[in-house]
């Protein structure tokens, strides 16, 4: 089996993941908790609604701690990439490990993306598109992302010229 790719993401990506996950977890929690809390407040005789609201609140606390405290450092340690003259190698995953080897002959497009949370931390993502789909390398410093995008585009152009 091949060695793991050498390059890691920027460590600030852990905070981006924490914030993004926290936003989604809170939105889902509110959508699940509020209806049962309202039923419990409006009709106190409906004891089941308060019990369900309590279960949702406990589940929220567990998922929140897991996704915001425990998983980001592990996810960061498992996320690797490497750009070689022939292919882009991406390895990621905590429980289900995935390894992508993307030959540059197959690359159709490369671009950078930056949402509001990434922008706040001075990070960007590089996306490499093939006919089979898109592969993203998140959490790179903006200048590093631009260099990686340009280098991948140049290697893809050279690979097509060699054919």
TrEMBL record:
<keyword id="KW-1133">Transmembrane helix</keyword>
<keyword id="KW-0812">Transmembrane</keyword>
<dbReference type="InterPro" id="IPR005182">
    <property type="entry name" value="YdbS-like_PH"/>
</dbReference>
<dbReference type="Pfam" id="PF03703">
    <property type="entry name" value="bPH_2"/>
</dbReference>
<protein>
    <submittedName>
        <fullName>PH domain-containing protein</fullName>
    </submittedName>
</protein>
<feature type="transmembrane region" description="Helical">
    <location>
        <begin position="21"/>
        <end position="42"/>
    </location>
</feature>
<keyword id="KW-0472">Membrane</keyword>
<feature type="transmembrane region" description="Helical">
    <location>
        <begin position="48"/>
        <end position="71"/>
    </location>
</feature>
<feature type="domain" description="YdbS-like PH">
    <location>
        <begin position="76"/>
        <end position="150"/>
    </location>
</feature>
């Amino acid at each position: 089996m091949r060695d793991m790719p050498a390059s890691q993401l920027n460590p600030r990506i852990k905070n981006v993941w924490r914030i993004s996950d926290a936003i989604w977890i809170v939105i889902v929690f509110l959508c699940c908790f509020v209806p049962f809390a309202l039923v419990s407040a409006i009709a106190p005789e409906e004891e089941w609604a308060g019990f369900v609201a309590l279960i949702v609140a406990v589940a929220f606390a567990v998922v929140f701690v897991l996704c915001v405290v425990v998983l980001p450092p592990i996810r960061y340690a498992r996320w690797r990439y490497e750009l070689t003259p022939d292919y882009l190698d991406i390895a990621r995953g905590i429980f289900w490990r995935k390894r992508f080897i993307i030959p540059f002959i197959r690359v159709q497009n490369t671009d950078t993306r930056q949402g509001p949370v990434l922008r706040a931390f001075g990070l960007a993502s590089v996306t490499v598109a093939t006919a089979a789909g898109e592969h993203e390398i998140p959490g790179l410093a903006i200048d590093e992302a631009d260099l990686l995008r340009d280098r991948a585009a140049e290697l893809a152009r050279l690979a097509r010229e060699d054919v």
